[in-house]
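in:
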């Protein structure tokens, strides 16, 4: 990786070329912030551009490039093309499932189903599933040996780490090795450089929500109904990520592992970008409090970061409530 100052020079040269090549239309490339009047109020909201230099070293599979793009509100715009490496740049992957019902919290990951609680997947948790989900069909372990049923082969990962779990993998703790996807799957994100607030917010839908600064996809909520309906636990590691064969390692919640951009004023640290180009920060500020003025998208604005989001509690199986801005089509 080239260092920051060299990349800044590279960006300056690029900006100069863009200005010469494209005329005044691209003049926003040279500024870092713009003021935009919110259509729903007379107050103007500070808009902060995406910073391509705050991703962690090794988070990206290639240099960030710029291309024209069409946004969901019809605007022709400039977007950053961000290709992530598909493995977290700043932490290990795993552990996911416990091997035995004697396991403690240090020997396994976590589980959350969106109902407000985060469970350590201890042996006791594995044993308690029938009671927790009020269904005697739950039996994720061998009663004689205490061994937990784990999808520990490529074939079982393939059959179980999906919404339509194959029946033979009912009552398994589901995990996949990153080796099954050749060490990680690169993913590409097209994000508007200058976010544009739209008059009506947009549902986050079933696709991914954004990208973490450490190079991990921020996925749509995990399909917990399908997972639990198949009597499986699709174990997350302590960073709220897990692996499937389609997208590799991805996060379903903000567990603190990607908060790499600490803020000097006590504001929550930044952890990524939503697809609309607005930054996503941790849920809690340094004083331990969640901002009280978040909108339905989990966003608000201040004089330093402009409009931005605060991630939901990891137990909620989501990051943000909706997109405040337009995303690339
Ligand atoms: Zn997933
Ligand atoms: Zn904030």
């Amino acid at each position: 990786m080239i260092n920051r100052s060299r990349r800044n020079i590279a960006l300056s040269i690029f900006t100069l070329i863009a200005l010469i090549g494209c005329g005044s239309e691209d003049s926003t490339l040279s500024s870092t912030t713009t003021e935009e009047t919110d259509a729903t109020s007379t107050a103007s909201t500070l808009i902060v551009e995406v910073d391509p230099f705050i991703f962690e070293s090794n988070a990206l599979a290639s240099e960030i490039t710029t291309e024209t793009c069409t946004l969901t509100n019809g605007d022709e715009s400039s977007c950053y093309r961000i290709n992530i490496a598909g493995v977290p740049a700043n932490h290990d992957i795993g552990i996911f499932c416990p091997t035995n019902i004697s396991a403690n919290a240090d020997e396994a990951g976590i589980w959350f189903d969106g109902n407000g609680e985060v469970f350590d997947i201890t042996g006791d948790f594995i044993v308690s599933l029938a009671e927790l989900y009020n269904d005697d069909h739950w039996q994720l372990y061998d009663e004689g040996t205490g061994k937990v049923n784990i999808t520990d082969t490529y074939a079982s990962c393939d059959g179980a780490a999906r919404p339509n779990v194959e029946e033979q993998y009912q009552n398994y703790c589901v995990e996949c090795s990153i080796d099954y996807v050749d060490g990680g799957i690169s993913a590409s994100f097209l994000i508007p450089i200058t976010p544009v607030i739209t008059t009506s917010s947009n549902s986050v839908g079933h696709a991914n929500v954004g990208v973490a600064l450490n190079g991990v996809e921020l996925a749509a909520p995990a399909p917990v109904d399908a997972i639990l309906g198949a009597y499986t636990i699709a174990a997350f590691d302590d960073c709220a990520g897990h692996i499937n064969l389609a997208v590799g390692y991805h996060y379903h919640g903000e567990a603190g592992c990607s908060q790499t951009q600490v803020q000097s004023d006590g504001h929550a640290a930044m952890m990524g970008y939503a697809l609309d180009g607005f930054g996503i920060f941790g849920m809690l500020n340094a004083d331990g409090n969640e901002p009280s003025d978040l909108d339905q998208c989990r966003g608000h604005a201040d004089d330093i970061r402009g409009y931005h989001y605060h991630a939901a509690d990891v137990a909620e199986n989501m990051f943000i409530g909706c997109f405040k801005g337009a995303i690339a089509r």
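note: Residues 267, 281, 291, 300, 302, 308, 310 surround zinc ion (ligand 2) (CB under 6 Å).
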